[in-house]
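In practice, a research group might receive sequence data for several interacting partners and want a quick structural hypothesis before committing to experiments. The following worked case mirrors that situation: the sequences arrive first, and a predicted assembly follows.
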Amino acid sequence: MNQDLMKQHVAQAALSYINDDNMILGVGTGSTVNALIALLPQVRDRIKACVSSSEASTAQLLDLGFEVIELNDAGTLSLYIDGADECDPHNRLIKGGGGALTREKIIAEASRQYVCIVDESKMVPMLGAFPLPVETIPMARSMVARKLVALGGQPIYREGFVTDNGNLILDVHNLKITDPVALEQKINQIPGVVTNGLFALRGANTTLIAQADGTIKKQ
Ligand code: 5RP
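A structural hypothesis for the assembly, expressed as C-alpha coordinates:
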Protein backbone atom coordinates (compact mmCIF):
# COMPACT_ATOMS: atom_id res chain seq x y z
CA MET A 1 0.00 0.00 0.00
CA ASN A 2 1.50 3.39 -0.93
CA GLN A 3 1.52 6.44 1.36
CA ASP A 4 -1.51 8.12 -0.21
CA LEU A 5 -3.58 4.98 0.26
CA MET A 6 -2.37 4.67 3.86
CA LYS A 7 -3.54 8.26 4.51
CA GLN A 8 -6.98 7.45 3.13
CA HIS A 9 -7.09 4.26 5.13
CA VAL A 10 -6.25 5.90 8.45
CA ALA A 11 -8.67 8.75 7.70
CA GLN A 12 -11.42 6.19 7.20
CA ALA A 13 -10.51 4.55 10.53
CA ALA A 14 -10.79 7.90 12.32
CA LEU A 15 -14.45 8.24 11.30
CA SER A 16 -15.42 5.71 13.98
CA TYR A 17 -14.44 8.30 16.62
CA ILE A 18 -17.12 10.66 15.32
CA ASN A 19 -19.73 8.72 17.20
CA ASP A 20 -21.98 11.23 18.97
CA ASP A 21 -24.82 13.31 17.62
CA ASN A 22 -24.44 17.06 17.23
CA MET A 23 -20.67 16.98 17.57
CA ILE A 24 -18.51 20.03 17.15
CA LEU A 25 -15.44 18.50 15.56
CA GLY A 26 -11.94 19.96 15.75
CA VAL A 27 -10.25 19.56 12.38
CA GLY A 28 -6.50 19.70 11.81
CA THR A 29 -4.43 20.49 8.74
CA GLY A 30 -2.36 18.62 6.17
CA SER A 31 -2.67 15.96 3.50
CA THR A 32 -3.84 13.22 5.91
CA VAL A 33 -6.51 15.55 7.27
CA ASN A 34 -7.46 16.47 3.70
CA ALA A 35 -8.22 12.79 3.19
CA LEU A 36 -10.31 12.86 6.37
CA ILE A 37 -12.27 15.96 5.32
CA ALA A 38 -13.09 14.33 1.99
CA LEU A 39 -14.69 11.45 3.92
CA LEU A 40 -16.63 13.58 6.44
CA PRO A 41 -19.80 13.65 4.31
CA GLN A 42 -20.19 9.95 5.31
CA VAL A 43 -20.87 11.08 8.91
CA ARG A 44 -22.48 14.43 8.13
CA ASP A 45 -25.51 13.65 10.33
CA ARG A 46 -23.32 13.57 13.44
CA ILE A 47 -21.48 16.84 12.85
CA LYS A 48 -23.19 20.01 13.93
CA ALA A 49 -20.19 22.21 13.09
CA CYS A 50 -16.41 22.18 12.83
CA VAL A 51 -13.61 24.23 14.37
CA SER A 52 -10.75 24.43 11.90
CA SER A 53 -7.02 24.84 12.43
CA SER A 54 -6.24 26.58 9.14
CA GLU A 55 -7.65 28.63 6.29
CA ALA A 56 -6.93 25.67 3.98
CA SER A 57 -9.00 23.21 6.03
CA THR A 58 -11.74 25.81 6.48
CA ALA A 59 -12.02 26.29 2.71
CA GLN A 60 -12.27 22.53 2.15
CA LEU A 61 -14.91 22.13 4.89
CA LEU A 62 -17.00 25.01 3.57
CA ASP A 63 -16.82 23.57 0.05
CA LEU A 64 -18.39 20.38 1.37
CA GLY A 65 -21.16 22.33 3.10
CA PHE A 66 -19.98 22.04 6.72
CA GLU A 67 -20.46 24.93 9.09
CA VAL A 68 -17.17 26.26 10.49
CA ILE A 69 -17.40 28.15 13.78
CA GLU A 70 -14.93 30.04 15.95
CA LEU A 71 -13.33 28.16 18.83
CA ASN A 72 -14.50 30.97 21.11
CA ASP A 73 -18.10 30.03 20.31
CA ALA A 74 -17.57 26.30 20.73
CA GLY A 75 -16.42 25.72 24.32
CA THR A 76 -14.53 22.50 25.06
CA LEU A 77 -14.49 20.16 22.07
CA SER A 78 -15.06 16.45 22.60
CA LEU A 79 -12.82 15.44 19.68
CA TYR A 80 -9.95 16.83 17.63
CA ILE A 81 -8.54 14.86 14.70
CA ASP A 82 -5.22 15.88 13.19
CA GLY A 83 -2.07 14.45 11.65
CA ALA A 84 1.58 14.81 12.66
CA ASP A 85 5.05 14.93 11.16
CA GLU A 86 6.52 12.61 13.80
CA CYS A 87 5.09 10.53 16.63
CA ASP A 88 7.05 8.77 19.37
CA PRO A 89 5.95 5.70 21.40
CA HIS A 90 4.34 8.00 24.03
CA ASN A 91 2.12 9.87 21.54
CA ARG A 92 4.33 12.94 21.76
CA LEU A 93 4.50 14.67 18.41
CA ILE A 94 6.29 17.07 16.12
CA LYS A 95 3.80 19.11 14.12
CA GLY A 96 3.86 22.18 11.92
CA GLY A 97 5.16 20.86 8.63
CA GLY A 98 2.16 22.60 7.10
CA GLY A 99 2.73 25.70 9.24
CA ALA A 100 -0.55 25.50 11.16
CA LEU A 101 1.02 24.55 14.49
CA THR A 102 -0.29 27.42 16.62
CA ARG A 103 -3.95 26.97 15.80
CA GLU A 104 -3.47 23.20 15.99
CA LYS A 105 -1.99 23.46 19.47
CA ILE A 106 -4.80 25.75 20.62
CA ILE A 107 -7.49 23.36 19.39
CA ALA A 108 -5.70 20.32 20.82
CA GLU A 109 -5.60 22.05 24.21
CA ALA A 110 -9.30 22.91 23.94
CA SER A 111 -10.26 19.29 23.20
CA ARG A 112 -10.94 16.40 25.55
CA GLN A 113 -9.63 13.89 23.02
CA TYR A 114 -6.98 14.29 20.32
CA VAL A 115 -6.92 11.43 17.83
CA CYS A 116 -3.78 11.63 15.74
CA ILE A 117 -3.81 10.03 12.28
CA VAL A 118 -0.53 9.05 10.63
CA ASP A 119 1.01 6.47 8.37
CA GLU A 120 3.82 4.27 9.64
CA SER A 121 6.54 6.51 8.14
CA LYS A 122 5.81 9.09 10.88
CA MET A 123 6.61 6.74 13.77
CA VAL A 124 10.00 7.29 15.43
CA PRO A 125 11.65 6.00 18.62
CA MET A 126 12.83 9.56 19.44
CA LEU A 127 11.54 12.89 18.06
CA GLY A 128 13.84 15.19 16.11
CA ALA A 129 14.73 13.78 12.69
CA PHE A 130 11.99 16.03 11.30
CA PRO A 131 13.05 19.69 11.70
CA LEU A 132 11.11 21.33 14.53
CA PRO A 133 8.92 24.22 13.28
CA VAL A 134 8.90 27.34 15.48
CA GLU A 135 6.35 30.05 14.69
CA THR A 136 7.99 33.40 15.39
CA ILE A 137 6.95 37.06 15.36
CA PRO A 138 8.79 38.61 12.35
CA MET A 139 10.79 41.25 14.29
CA ALA A 140 12.20 38.57 16.60
CA ARG A 141 13.48 36.28 13.83
CA SER A 142 17.25 36.76 14.21
CA MET A 143 17.25 36.85 18.00
CA VAL A 144 15.08 33.72 18.23
CA ALA A 145 17.35 31.98 15.69
CA ARG A 146 20.42 32.76 17.83
CA LYS A 147 18.69 31.32 20.93
CA LEU A 148 17.80 28.17 18.99
CA VAL A 149 21.43 27.80 17.92
CA ALA A 150 22.39 28.08 21.61
CA LEU A 151 20.03 25.17 22.27
CA GLY A 152 22.02 23.09 19.78
CA GLY A 153 19.78 23.44 16.72
CA GLN A 154 20.26 24.80 13.23
CA PRO A 155 17.29 27.06 12.43
CA ILE A 156 16.40 27.59 8.77
CA TYR A 157 14.01 30.38 7.85
CA ARG A 158 11.06 28.99 5.82
CA GLU A 159 11.39 31.58 3.06
CA GLY A 160 8.27 33.02 1.50
CA PHE A 161 5.97 31.33 4.01
CA VAL A 162 3.59 33.38 6.18
CA THR A 163 1.40 31.62 8.75
CA ASP A 164 -2.35 32.20 8.98
CA ASN A 165 -1.46 34.42 11.96
CA GLY A 166 0.89 36.63 9.93
CA ASN A 167 4.10 35.21 11.39
CA LEU A 168 7.09 33.28 10.06
CA ILE A 169 8.46 29.79 10.65
CA LEU A 170 11.97 28.74 11.64
CA ASP A 171 12.57 25.02 10.97
CA VAL A 172 15.12 23.79 13.48
CA HIS A 173 17.36 20.95 12.30
CA ASN A 174 19.54 18.58 14.31
CA LEU A 175 18.02 19.13 17.74
CA LYS A 176 18.62 16.35 20.24
CA ILE A 177 15.16 15.97 21.75
CA THR A 178 15.84 13.70 24.70
CA ASP A 179 13.26 15.47 26.89
CA PRO A 180 10.44 16.78 24.66
CA VAL A 181 8.45 18.34 27.53
CA ALA A 182 11.45 20.32 28.81
CA LEU A 183 12.42 21.49 25.31
CA GLU A 184 8.84 22.49 24.48
CA GLN A 185 8.75 24.64 27.62
CA LYS A 186 12.22 26.09 27.03
CA ILE A 187 11.52 27.19 23.47
CA ASN A 188 8.16 28.64 24.51
CA GLN A 189 10.04 30.91 26.95
CA ILE A 190 11.97 32.72 24.18
CA PRO A 191 10.38 36.14 23.63
CA GLY A 192 8.98 36.35 20.12
CA VAL A 193 8.20 32.65 19.86
CA VAL A 194 4.49 32.13 19.35
CA THR A 195 4.49 28.32 19.41
CA ASN A 196 6.85 25.48 18.76
CA GLY A 197 5.83 22.27 17.03
CA LEU A 198 6.50 19.95 19.96
CA PHE A 199 3.23 18.50 21.20
CA ALA A 200 4.57 16.84 24.33
CA LEU A 201 2.88 18.72 27.19
CA ARG A 202 -0.35 17.89 25.40
CA GLY A 203 0.28 15.01 23.04
CA ALA A 204 -2.30 12.85 21.34
CA ASN A 205 -4.62 10.66 23.41
CA THR A 206 -4.65 8.03 20.71
CA THR A 207 -2.65 7.59 17.53
CA LEU A 208 -4.02 5.59 14.62
CA ILE A 209 -1.19 4.32 12.44
CA ALA A 210 -1.75 3.06 8.91
CA GLN A 211 0.58 0.18 8.05
CA ALA A 212 1.78 -0.70 4.57
CA ASP A 213 0.15 -4.14 4.93
CA GLY A 214 -3.28 -2.50 5.10
CA THR A 215 -3.85 -2.81 8.85
CA ILE A 216 -4.39 0.02 11.34
CA LYS A 217 -2.42 -0.01 14.56
CA LYS A 218 -3.67 1.89 17.60
CA GLN A 219 -1.29 3.45 20.15
C1 5RP B 1 0.37 20.93 9.79
C2 5RP B 1 0.67 19.70 10.53
C3 5RP B 1 0.33 18.40 9.90
O1 5RP B 1 -0.42 17.64 10.79
C4 5RP B 1 1.58 17.67 9.58
O2 5RP B 1 2.42 18.49 8.80
C5 5RP B 1 1.32 16.37 8.84
O3 5RP B 1 0.89 16.65 7.54
P1 5RP B 1 0.63 15.52 6.48
O4 5RP B 1 -0.61 14.80 6.89
O5 5RP B 1 0.48 16.28 5.17
O6 5RP B 1 1.83 14.63 6.44
O7 5RP B 1 1.18 19.70 11.62
O8 5RP B 1 0.82 22.06 10.46
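Before designing any experiment, note the following. The longest helix spans residues 3-14. The chain is about 25% helix and 25% strand.
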